[in-house]
Design a protein that fits this description.
By secondary structure, the protein is an all-alpha fold. It has one domain: MetI-like fold, CATH 1.10.3720.10.
């Protein structure tokens, strides 16, 4: 009876997966094989491997890499510092709260901040540098993207650092390891699962950004997410838009596989602890 109860309790979970994960992916795959007239074709996949989409794919990966890298460089020291604070849970909540604000509102806020008449340019003019074109640049796009994704990078890294056994760090120091060596040979390896989870949470969404590219970068940054939006809403070519989405889904699974944690390694670490 217990086994039957366990099976029945999983029905809502499997139903959710089928309806909201499997079915949408199959629908996207189906539309990717249709042309503008609704006829079956593989022309969309052939077109995807042209130079235009190849350059767009490289651009998407490059910007996603930069966004993830800068998010990690900011988030790891911040998460490490938070674990050392007295009211660390409070500080963590204060960092996470901005992620609850609507993305569109935050984007428009940065349009005002980086605008020609915004506070940044007002400060630059006050110190004699003069107004600068900050908005609609690669810098503004990466800066705003990093700001938006930082909470998603900090949270898993914080959890990994918070669970770290201080005795391991003390043991490394007692054995003569410097702070840098301890950080590089002990702290980083033991918190690698948190880093991988943060990379997943940032890199995958960064590949498909489109609203920020429109409003902050002024279409000077073209990503696969922008291409999907154009194909669906402008060109009305659902087949090509779905084809790009299929490749994004494939990339997502590849990244999840490469950055996924290994149960065997986790078990061994647990035994070490």
């Amino acid at each position: 009876m217990k086994n039957k109860g366990g099976v029945f309790s999983l029905i809502p979970y499997y139903a959710w997966v089928v309806l909201f994960v499997v079915a949408p992916i199959l629908l996207v795959l189906y539309y990717s094989m249709l042309d503008l007239d609704g006829h079956f074709t593989l022309e969309n996949y052939k077109n995807f491997f042209t130079s235009v989409y190849f350059e767009m794919t490289l651009s998407s990966f490059w910007y996603a890499f930069l966004i993830t890298l800068f998010s990690l460089l900011v988030s790891y020291p911040a998460a490490y510092l938070i674990t050392k604070l007295k009211h660390k849970q409070l500080w963590l909540i204060l960092i996470i709260i901005p992620s609850w604000v609507n993305l569109l509102l935050k984007t428009y806020a940065f349009i005002g901040i980086f605008g020609n008449k915004g506070p940044i340019n007002a400060f630059l003019a006050a110190i004699g540098i003069g107004e600068q074109q900050i908005l609609f640049t690669n810098f503004s796009f990466i800066f705003v993207s990093v700001y938006i994704f930082i909470p998603f990078m900090i949270l898993p890294i914080f959890n990994a650092l918070d669970k770290l056994n201080p005795a391991l760090i003390d043991a490394a120091r007692d054995l003569g390891a410097s702070r840098i060596t301890t950080f590089r040979r002990v702290i980083i390896p033991l918190t690698m699962n948190g880093i991988k989870a943060g990379v997943q949470a940032v890199f995958i969404p960064a590949l498909s950004l489109f609203m920020i590219t429109r409003l902050i970068a002024g279409n000077k940054v073209i990503t696969l997410g922008t291409a999907i939006e154009q194909q669906f809403l402008v060109a009305q070519n659902w087949g090509m838009g779905s084809t790009i989405a299929v490749f994004l889904i494939i990339v997502m699974f590849i990244i999840m596989f490469l950055t996924g944690s290994k149960e065997k390694g986790e078990t061994q670490n647990g035994k070490t602890k």
